[in-house]
């Protein structure tokens, strides 16, 4: 039995570099009671390397039928969390294939050694999908690697009374008897782990902003927002305007925050939307900062995405620094204060993490977030605000829709600013011992 591919060492058993998805069309039917999912995925495949098979990621769900170009393949089989499709003949690089997979079952999260559980998860009355980093295969067959971006059209049919929120713009909403279909279109290429579906009994609260901006909140709370809600979610339009000034135009057609009726351990990042538990509705900075953090990911993580998971600081360090910027902008502590505060705390922590390659077991360690933010603060302090924010705007503009590495950022920053950014930041990125914070 041939060995199945791994696209990224940080996530063994996911992804196939011999092909790429150009688009996904997902047609899903879901029964909340009983947690039953039936789906059809239509995938526009581009072959990148000559091959006679396509390996997809699909966990816990059964496959009923597969076609390639309208015909049955030579063979298909499930092998644990993978779907292996054998082609009738070898396909050359550049070949486009229309792959259709019909599947279904009772979706549930995938549990990975270093990253815990992620994926399709039942709430007390509804569903969340936590995609990062390995949850996408729990609800659709895909090429689950962060550098494989595609457009999406997602239709979810479920019981009347539930609201469905997914990536992109709502294209169609149609009721048929006791069920209702919601179709969302994400026409900006998106990594698999950023695709999501949120289902619940929600009210929609609209916010006046530079793009369509809304929150989906538990029914009843939207009509009577609290001061705690307004402190964070009520200021999303202000955050977005501030971030556009620092990072460049908001990159998608809309933005949504979903607030579930359940408590969640952490917020969930997705392209064009973020998801929070009701426990994040608070006036306290520890909750408000995360509203800013998840919004910042739309620039750092979503429109500009890492090529390899080892470069996760390009997402989390930037989003963490955005918290400090919002703190400064909203009249709380300055970014300098936060830098000194977290540098002191990191100095007391274990010195066993290199930011550019923390290892799969530490990729979501809080030190990656804070040390990444400190790295950016050092860069800002050296360049000055004008050059620093010009750099960030240039970075998101030049690499919009792309996949990047740390080396890409260092090269771009050096060329943009005429400064030896690589030399300045290497100690912060590569050495495990925490450098001194410049004064």
TrEMBL record:
InterPro entries: Aminopeptidase_N-like_N, Aminopeptidase_N-like_N_sf, Peptidase_M1, Peptidase_M1_aminopeptidases, Peptidase_M1_dom, Peptidase_M4/M1_CTD_sf. It catalyses: Release of an N-terminal amino acid, Xaa-|-Yaa- from a peptide, amide or arylamide. Xaa is preferably Ala, but may be most amino acids including Pro (slow action). When a terminal hydrophobic residue is followed by a prolyl residue, the two may be released as an intact Xaa-Pro dipeptide. One of its GO terms (biological process) is proteolysis. Signal peptide: none annotated. Its cofactor is Zn(2+). GO terms for molecular function: alanyl aminopeptidase activity; metallopeptidase activity; zinc ion binding. Residues 22-194 form the Aminopeptidase N-like N-terminal domain. Residues 237-428 form the Peptidase M1 membrane alanine aminopeptidase domain. It comes from the Bacteria. It holds the Pfam family Peptidase_M1_N. Belongs to the peptidase M1 family. This is Aminopeptidase N.
């Amino acid at each position: 039995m041939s060995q199945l591919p791994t696209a990224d060492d940080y996530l063994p058993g996911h992804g196939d570099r011999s092909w790429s998805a150009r688009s996904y069309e997902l047609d899903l039917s879901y029964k909340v009671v009983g947690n039953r999912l039936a789906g059809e995925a239509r995938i526009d495949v581009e072959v990148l390397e000559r091959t006679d098979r396509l390996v997809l990621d699909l966990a816990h769900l059964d496959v009923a039928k597969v076609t390639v170009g309208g015909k049955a393949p030579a063979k298909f089989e499930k092998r644990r969390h993978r779907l292996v499709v054998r082609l009738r003949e070898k396909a050359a690089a550049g070949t486009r294939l229309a792959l259709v997979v019909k599947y279904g079952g009772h979706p549930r999260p995938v549990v990975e050694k270093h990253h815990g559980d992620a994926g399709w998860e039942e709430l007390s009355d509804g569903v969340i999908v936590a995609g990062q980093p390995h949850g996408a295969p729990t609800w659709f067959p895909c090429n689950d690697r962060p550098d494989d971006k595609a457009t999406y059209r997602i239709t979810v049919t479920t019981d009347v009374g539930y609201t469905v929120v997914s990536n992109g713009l709502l294209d169609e909403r149609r009721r048929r008897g006791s069920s209702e279909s919601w179709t969302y279109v994400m026409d900006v290429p998106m990594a698999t782990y950023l695709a999501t579906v949120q289902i619940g009994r929600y009210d929609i609260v609209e916010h006046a902003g530079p793009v369509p901006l809304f929150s989906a909140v538990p029914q009843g709370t939207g009509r009577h927002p609290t001061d705690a809600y307004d402190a964070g979610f009520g200021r999303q339009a202000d955050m977005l305007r501030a971030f556009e000034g620092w990072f460049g135009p908001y990159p998608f057609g809309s933005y949504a925050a979903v607030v579930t009726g359940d408590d969640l351990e952490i917020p969930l990042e997705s392209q064009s939307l973020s998801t929070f538990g009701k426990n994040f509705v608070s006036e306290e900075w520890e909750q408000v900062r995360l509203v800013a953090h998840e919004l910042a990911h739309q620039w750092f993580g979503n429109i500009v995405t890492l090529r390899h998971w080892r470069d996760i600081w390009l997402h989390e360090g930037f989003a963490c620094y955005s918290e400090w910027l919002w703190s400064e902008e909203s009249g709380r502590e300055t970014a300098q204060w936060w830098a000194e505060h977290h540098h002191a705390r990191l100095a007391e922590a274990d010195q066993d993490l290199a930011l550019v390659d923390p290892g799969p077991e530490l990729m979501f360690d809080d030190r990656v977030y804070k040390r990444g933010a400190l790295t950016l603060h050092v860069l800002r302090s050296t360049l000055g605000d004008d050059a620093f924010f010009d750099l960030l705007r240039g970075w998101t503009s030049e690499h919009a829709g792309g996949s990047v590495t740390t080396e890409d950022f260092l090269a771009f920053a050096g060329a943009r600013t005429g400064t030896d950014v690589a030399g300045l930041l290497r100690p912060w990125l590569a050495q495990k011992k925490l450098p001194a914070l410049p004064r």
